[in-house]
Structures are given as structure tokens and as C-alpha cells.
Amino acid sequence: MLDLLFLEFKKAEKEEAFPPHSTRLFVLVGNIGGREFAESLAPDVQKLLISSSCRPLVRKKAALCLLRLYRKNPDVVNVDGWSDRMAQLLDERDLGVLTSSMSLLVALVSNNHDAYWSCLPKCVKILERLARNQDVPQEYTYYGIPTPWLQVKTMRALQYFPTIEDPNTRRSLFEVLQRILMGTDVVKNVNKNNASHAVLFEALALVMHLDAEKEMMSQCVALLGKFIAVREPNIRYLGLENMTRMLMVSDVQDIIKRHQAQIITSLKDPDIRLNLSALYCFVYLLTISKL
């Protein structure tokens, strides 16, 4: 069966621009192909991904197929030379291809960020584009939020890099993060809350990772303080979880103590998840206070 699939894939590849109906082969290759199959077809999948003659649908499927192959056999992607290709993919204007490529990048940098430093400024440019809602089609806007899933993936990729040394890139990134922090609030629409808070909490994780200045850290704590005071239990839970993480940052521990009364209130909530999250946060706060 695999031999027949291999021949079918090669036949489709030779056809002009890889016909869209043949994209199902990517699913089969990614899901049932073993090491030998991955080693044989990964180079062809990479060529299709970077080919300008292929339709966006084909390139999107190729990126997801390569991601699947890479997760099974990380050595199928040759880092030498591919890192530059990966950086070029981040200039893609089609958001479907870009989102799939970003999923691939997250997997690549999680194993070896050193090979992909050239992708870091490109990731910041993507966040700038999305934060300003530039060149974002309506179909990629979710409840007024420009492609939140791509924003989350991009910020997650940046967290695998230990630091950002270039001052201009760092400044641009913090401007985007500031815009996210200032533009996120709790609204009545649950779907919009879910999307905006997914972006927000990934931004908070990135702020902590980059060891931002105290002013921005204080702003993050103030925002979390608002979240742990709302009635919606899921939002309170996320607020408490992230406030516990913020306690690891020594510069804001005194600011978090201002929200101690609200943390204690959550200890009395009938929701066991909130009880435990509040308990962890409160115990951690007391432990740090005694040090």
C-alpha cells in the first residue's frame, strides 16, 4: 500500500502546480508514513511548501504534512539551508499558509532555536502586522480580532528564544505587547472573550519570558487583578493561574500583595478549581513574603 501511495504522490507532484484534489495525499503521508517513507518524501514536501507556483491550499497542506513528519522523525528536516527557507516563509502574505508555517516553526524552534534566529525579527513583524490589522482579510478576523490563532502561535514561537538582543526588534515587540495589554478586557460575548484572552495570556507569558521592565509587569498584575475579581469562573481561574506565575518575578511581588483580599475570597468559592488555584497562589505568596 505504501509503495502505491509513494507512486501516487510522485505522480501528483509532476502534474502542474500539484492539483488541489491531490492534497489528500499529504494527509496520508503525514499520518501513516514511517521513517523510511518520511525520509523519501520529506524533501519533496519541502519543495512544494516553498514553491511559488503551488496554490496556497497545497502549500498549507504541505506545511502541516511536514510538521507531522517532523514530529515523528525530527531528523527528516535538514537544518542546514532550511532555516533560511523558513525565514522566507514568514514573509508569506496568505494567512492560511503563514499559520501552517508558524505551526511548523514552533515545532522546529522547540528542538533547536539556535538554527532559526533569522526567524525572530520576522515573527515580530507578523505580530506588528496583526496588531495593526494590516492586510488581514475578513475571513481571518474572529470577532474583530485579527487571526488570534496566528498571534498565539507566533508569541509561543518567540518564547523558545532565550532573549532578543536587537534593541529595535525588542522595542517593536514590546509596543505590540503593550497594545495587546491595553486592548483586552472582559466582554459579554463568550467567543470573543475566549479568543482575546487566548492572545492576552500568551502575551503575558511572553512578557514574563522576556523579563520586561517593572512598569509593564505592574500593568500585567493590574490586569490580572481585574480578572480575578469578575464573576466568570473560567476567567478568574486563568487570572489566578497567571498571577501565581507572576509571583516568580521578584519586582512585582509587592504589587500582587495588594490583591490578597481577592485571592482569599476565591478560597471560599464553591468551584474546586478556583479553590485550588487560589490556594496555590496564596501559599506561594505567603512563602515568598517570609523569605
UniProtKB/TrEMBL annotation:
InterPro entries named among the record's database cross-references: Adaptor_Complx_Large_Subunit (IPR050840), ARM-like (IPR011989), ARM-type_fold (IPR016024), Clathrin/coatomer_adapt-like_N (IPR002553)
Cellular component terms (Gene Ontology): endomembrane system; membrane coat
Domain Clathrin/coatomer adaptor adaptin-like N-terminal: 30-285
SUPFAM superfamilies, A to Z: ARM repeat (SSF48371)
Subcellular localization(s) per the UniProt record: Endomembrane system
UniProt keyword Transport present: yes
Keywords recorded for this protein, A-Z: Membrane, Protein transport, Transport
Entry-linked Pfam families: Adaptin_N (PF01602)
Protein name as annotated: AP-2 complex subunit alpha-2
The encoding gene: ALPHAC-AD_1
